[in-house]
Structure formats: structure tokens, C-alpha cells
Amino acid sequence: MLSITGLGGCGEVGKSAFLINSDSTNILLDYGVKIQQETIEYPPIPKRVDAIIPSHSHLDHSGAIPVLSKARIPIYLTDASLELTVLLLKDSVKISERNGQPINFSKKDIYYILKNAKTVKYEKDFFINDVRCRLFDAGHIPGSAGILLSAKNKNIFYTGDMKLEPQYLVNGCSLPREKIDVLITESTYSDRNHPDRKKEEKNFKERIDEALNMNETVLIPSFAVGRAQEILLILKDYRKYIALDGMAQEATKIILRHKKYLKNGPELEEIFMSAKKVKNNKQRDMLLKKPHIIVTTAGMLSGGPAVYYIKKIYNRKNSRILLVGFQVEETPGKILLDTGVFRNNDTKLQVRCKVEKFDFSSHAGKNELFKIIETLKPKQVICVHGDKCGKFAKDIEKEFKIPAIAPKNGDKILVR
């Protein structure tokens, strides 16, 4: 019997975890967390896991892996994903200790990941007992993977986070040629398409120019892995103004060690080398005295150097805060966008400088998701990792006349 159980990530963005069972083999696709303002949510712990295959390093897909790492479970992933996952997990422990926020593992548990890891290449078969496995470039961030599992004469393909259209940082996704019996697809942007990229970049640069022409600061809070590097490439003509702060510095160094995953590796390296690297508050204060574009963590304003900068510029009406990533409900970034008020721990500020959000998403929009389904021609689709999975399932059935479902966490689906 072949089955799929959604442990997390069903009808939500966060704590993705899908258990694939083939007779005596249990394979966990992703094991992530859902980070909220007050708590961190974990998926349930399976009774038995023979292997973990994380699709990529972002914590909503990898952040719970250390909970299982003491069990010496082998972890199959790309070399870039391994380094970036360890970086993000170590940072989550540091943030937990600083904020007094409970976390279900320690730094020692992260060390076990390195011992258990087995790095694999795209489109090269490997076996976990009776299951043949293969990774495909997901086009999301460096090292990200779609995962193909073959067992019982059935093929299951899990997209993880996937993008069809190329970005500056990485090329678009690759897809398997095999017939797909079950497609497990992300649904993050299943209800809409992304705006025209060239227009979005033009508007983004116009806002930057406005601030720089008034000798003011542009603050760009960004996710450290993937988005920060994409933003650096977008800003290639602004090199003399760019400053890079927070974990994005180390993430960029790791990414540059894995240029085989990059579309514009040499150009990224050149921009990174020319950018000012910020290490402390004294340097931050110096930056704010002259016009600069500051790319820094954290992308949803829940911590990192971005908070320090906001406290300094919130009352400077000609400065700009340009958000460039998805803002989860109830995070400081989302609250700031909706209300104009920045709230973080004991801080509450009425922000006078202009705040705008730009869509440079590394997730597929609705049309891209449809093209992926059209290309793969699956017999059945399971919609996950989204707030509107149910509607997307209905849209798929209407468009392609194939069965599509939006399971709840805990649901078990038999593959027939």
C-alpha cells in the first residue's frame, strides 16, 4: 500500500511535513515549523521515519528536522541546502535564546544533521529501501528541489516551493518526464498572478531614486536566503549605495560557494564584494548619515538589524521602508503595512516614512502553477502550502478535469 499523510502544511503556509508510506518504508518530505509572533508550531512526530528529504532550507520546510536528528535518520538534500539549513537553524536557536522563546532542540541536535546528511545531485537516482528518489531544480532558491518518489509502479512528485519563470538569481524549475500519478503542489499564490516583473522593478527603483535624491535612507528588510541575493542583483546599478547587514552576509557567502545553482553567480559575487558589510550599531549610525540602500534581515520585521534601523528612521518622512517578501498575518511587517504602526516586543511606533511592499516572489503564481500541472499531466493533485487550497483544488478540477483535493493536517490519502 502506498499512502500520503499530511502532518503539516495543509491549508496553511508553515510547518510543511508529508509522510509517504510504501509498505515498510516511511519517507518524510520536509519537516518545517510555523513561526509566529509568540510561539513556534511544530508538526507531530511520526512513529517511524526511514529518511527525510527536505525540499529546501527555509525554516517552514526544514525548521523541525533537528527534533528528529538524534534518531540518526538519514537526510537527503543538495549540498547548498545542507549549508543553508544549518545556517538558518543555528540562527533560530540564537533568536530563541535571546527572546526567551521555547524551541524544541539545541545546537547539538543541529550537529547531528551534519552527521546524518547525504548530499545528492539533481536528476540522479537514489534509493530508500524500495523507493526510487530523484531531485529536480525547483527554481525557488539555490539548492531547492522538487522531489520525485517512485514505488509500487506509482510516481509521486512533490513541488516543495517552486517557480517556473527564471529569476536573476536562479533559473526556472525543471520537471520530471515520467507520468505522474500524484502531484503534491504548493498553493501559496494559487489565487493570483504576480505583477509584471519589469513594471514592479521600475516602480521599486523609482521609490529608491526618490529617497536617494533627497539624501535619505532606503531600508529593504529581506529574507536572508534567496531574496536578499535577488535584491542585490536587481540593484546592480546602485552599487555605490548598497549596504548589507545581518545574516544575509553569511547566506550570500554560502550561496557563492555553490555557483552551480546560480544563474548570475559572477555578477552576484561582484555586487557582494562592493557592498558595505555592516557589523555593529556604530556602523549602522554612520550609514544613516548619508544616502544608502540597506538590505538587511529580517524580512517580516520580527527581529534582526531591521528593527534597529526602523527605530532610527521611523520619523524621517523622506526615508523609505520597502518590503520585498511575503508578510504572514500578525507579524510586525504585516501590521506595519496595514496600520502604519510598527510593533515589536515593547516597541510601538507610528511610522511617518513611506512603507510599500513589492512582489519579487520566488513562488509560482497561478498561471505558472497551471503550466506546471499542464506539463506534468498528473492523474491526481493534492493542494498544500497555501491559505486557499480548497479553492485551488476546485479551480484545477474545472480547468483540467482531474481529481484535486485540499487535505487537512492529519488526513491520510491512499495512492491507488
What name does CATH use for the topology of the largest domain?
Metallo-beta-lactamase, Chain A
**Overall mean pLDDT score?**
96
Tally of strands: 24
Broad shape? globular
**Poorly predicted spans:** none
The class by helix and strand makeup works out as alpha/beta
What's the CATH architecture name of the largest domain? Answer: 4-Layer Sandwich
Distance N to C terminus? 8 Å
CATH class of the largest domain reads Alpha Beta
Helix content: 25-40%
Strand order of the largest sheet: 9-10-11-12-13-22-23
User: Which percent band covers the strand fraction?
Assistant: 15-25%
- Could you name the CATH homologous superfamily of the largest domain? Ribonuclease Z/Hydroxyacylglutathione hydrolase-like
Q: Main sheet?
A: 7 strands, mixed
Contiguous helical run count: 13
Q: How many domain modules?
A: 2
The whole-angstrom Rg is 21 Å
What attributes does this structure have?
416 residues; Metallo-beta-lactamase, Chain A; 2 domains; six-stranded parallel beta sheet; 13 helices; 24 strands
Structure explained in plain terms:
- The termini are close together.
- This protein folds into 2 domains: 2-192 and 362-415, Metallo-beta-lactamase, Chain A; 197-357, Rossmann fold (3-Layer(aba) Sandwich), CATH 3.40.50.
- A 7-stranded mixed β-sheet has the order 9-10-11-12-13-22-23, covered by helices on one side.
- 49% of the residues are buried.
- A hairpin with a 2-residue loop joins strand 11 (145-151) and strand 12 (154-158).
- Helices cover 31% and strands 25% of the residues.
- Helix 3 (79-99) packs antiparallel against helix 4 (107-116) and helix 3 runs antiparallel to helix 7 (248-256).
- The chain is α/β, with parallel strands linked by helices.
- It has 13 helices and 24 strands.
